[in-house]
Task: structure prediction
Amino acid sequence: MSTTRTTISTTTSTTTTVFTASEAADPGYSHGPHAAAHAAGGPGQAQADGFAVSVVLPTSGRLDLLDRSLDALTRQNLPGASYELIIVDDEADPGTLQLVAGWRSRTGARGPCITYLANDAPHGPAAARNRGWRMAGAPIIAFTDDNTVPSPDWLQQGLNAFNDNIDVLCGPVHMALPRHPTDYQRDASQLESSEFIVANCFCRKQVLQAVDGFDERFSVAWRDDSDLYFRLLKHHARIARASQVMVEHPVRAAPWGASLGQASKISYDALLYKKHPELYREKIRRRWRWDYYAVVGALLAAVLGVAFDQRQLAVCGAAIWLMLTALFCIQRLRGTAKTPSHILEMVVTSALIPPLAVFWRVVGAVKFRARFA
Result:
């Protein structure tokens, strides 16, 4: 991987600081007193050889969300000298570099060491996280995302919960839904019930090294954390959960038809299944998607009936397709917003999701050579 060299300047009332992405990639390039070693102490204190914890935050062009997350991360009740923030930019965007430089200048000597890394290739959150944790200076790595808001005591609580019997610590992700959420928002809120989510976890660096970090073949934000979790389980890592280690994950409104754009991610289920078939069936999905295949089969029957002038086949196929699609639509609408726009979206996307999902499942099976259905 290479680091894009982009020079920017940030101006305060007294000084002008100029730094480059190449300098930011140097672990020794720190601001103020944070470059120096600190006396060893208990949880939340910098260790003699560096930081108590390194926070790795991948981002990709979402400046408003990153700004909100950095605001929370620089306001931790942990001493600034005790932790570092490593921002890995998957787009190598000058705007992101400028934003990080602004926070670096704003927090000054009181804040944590803030490092910007431009991830030129390979791309994806898994690759970006690997880029970050491998250059981290602390023995404990804290992962979160640019669309989360960690609580003020997130790092302190995480470090307090760690002991010699823990390799990985997971905390909850809270997603507050509106009174009448959309189907997309309700689906996104399932992150709250996940056993393991990388948006809120602390890992020992030596354990990440033992399992070789994230699998960079998961090039989108889908199943990469599940894969890491399954490999940690197989490695017999000691995984603990702490309810007091909290991050907020505000649920945003999504564009009309956003669920269609998510369908392509299903192809990565095939890779996860190929690597961990038993754990996939145990923790992700126990059975294959017979409902999607039934919808697609009925639709094909209707099309073939029309093509070969088989009226009975066409009518039966169309009737079954319409019934299954209607049931799917009703299921998605249950407990969600009933605005005309959302109802229309559910009708249209409920007809399109099953064939799209089957298509991408087949693509994944072929691409990753997995017997996946």
Q: What stands out?
A: The two ends are 35 Å apart (CA to CA). The CA atoms of residues 60 and 291 lie 35 Å apart.
